Amino acid sequence: WVALVGVVRAEFLRARNFEYVQAARALGVRNATIMWRHLLPNAMVATLTFMPFILNGSITTLTSLDFLGFGLPPGSPSLGELLAQGKSNLQAPWLGLTGFFVIAVMLSLLIFIGEAVRDALDPRKTFE
After folding, report:
1. Which one of 20, 25, 46, 54 is most buried, counting C-beta atoms within 10 A?
2. Which among 81, 112, 73, 111 is positioned nearest to 98, based on CA atoms?
3. Largest CA distance in the chain
4. Is 90 exceeded by the pLDDT of residue 109?
5. 127: in domain
């Protein structure tokens, strides 16, 4: 979450110099209102862009740790455990292939869903 806070902070620092933020400040709008109405929507776009990649990294890390035997307790159903079983049972290749394809599809769909949510909530995007 520290990387996410850094992204939000960078967006706030970048957006505070925008012309419409300075105009709102010159008109006497309160700082909380400027943050809520102008800065936060721009920061949310960067956060929503970064979030699927954080989740993908977390899923990949958990799967890797489970594959190596350092993740969830033994016997817990997980994709890493499925891949480990596929490695130990090479006479049944569907075990490893199923785990691989599920991970690949899940991570790809997570990125696509994150991009769609970002496009839907982007305040800078105009529809004509």
Report:
1. 46
2. 81
3. 73
4. yes
5. no
Question: DSSP per residue over 90-122, as a string?
Answer: TT-HHHHHHHHHHHHHHHHHHHHHHHHHHHHH-
Q: Which DSSP string corresponds to 27-84?
A: TT--HHHHIIIIIHHHHHHHHHHHHHHHHHHHHHHHHHHHHHT-SSPTT---HHHHHH
Give the tokens for residue 1.
């979450």
- Count of domains for the chain: 1
Contact 82, 97 (CB under 8 A): no
User: 32-45, pLDDT tens digit by residue?
Assistant: 888 888 888 878 88
Instruction: Evaluate whether residue 60 is within a structural domain.
Output: yes
Is residue 126 included in any domain, yes or no?
no
Yes or no: say if 45 and 122 are a contact pair by the CB < 8 Å rule: yes
